[in-house]
Amino acid sequence: MLGELLTKDTVRLNVKVKNWEEAIRMGGQLLVQEDAVEQSYVEAMVRAVKELGPYIVIAPGFAMPHARAEDGVKKIAMSLVTLESPVAFGNPDNDPVAMVICLAAVDHTTHIKAMRELAVFLNDADKMSQIKSTREVNDVLALLQV
């Protein structure tokens, strides 16, 4: 499922951003360009962090921004952005963040398989290291084939 959701159009590597908000917006714009979400969804992802804090930083160096389906999701989608220089999101346990995967889910169930695959992936330190260091989107896509 990850291999279906993350494609050459939804992956950007070694992106330069100034802060966490730019990182989220970069991933969100990839979803907008895929016609998976409305711009309002990107704004909702940013607003969620501003209002609720950096709960989306779920593992060391990794954040998963998301918002509610009613905030503008058209179809299930994911984007992956690796950062040239990691940025702080404000999570003392898991900052700085070097990889951001934005998630757009249409309901509470359709994305579960992708989340399971992502959890396996996040626990594979070797694959995580490879993704953070690669500069080729096709190499990342090959690593994501679970």
Describe the structure.
This protein has helices at 2-5, 20-33, 39-52, 112-122, 125-133, 137-144; strands at 11-15, 57-59, 62-63, 77-87, 97-104. The chain has 146 residues and is of the alpha/beta class. Helix 2 packs antiparallel against helix 3. The radius of gyration is 14 Å and the shape is globular. It starts with a helix and ends with a helix.
Strand order of the largest sheet: 1-4-5-3-2
| Structure annotation, total helices | 6
* Overall average pLDDT: 89
List the uncertain runs: none
In terms of DSSP E residues, the strand content is 15-25%
| Large-scale geometry | globular
Structural class: alpha/beta
Task: Give the beta-strand count.
Answer: 5
Brief write-up:
With 146 residues, this protein is α/β, with parallel strands linked by helices. The chain is built from 6 helices and 5 strands; from the N terminus they run αβααββββααα.
Question: What is the secondary structure topology, with strand pairs?
Answer:
Elements: H1 2-5, E1 11-15, H2 20-33, H3 39-52, E2 57-59, E3 62-63, E4 77-87, E5 97-104, H4 112-122, H5 125-133, H6 137-144
Parallel strand pairs: 1-4, 3-5
Antiparallel strand pairs: 2-3, 4-5
Helix pairs in contact: 2-3
Question: Which labels suit this protein?
Answer:
146 residues; alpha/beta; five-stranded mixed beta sheet; 5 strands; 41% helix; globular
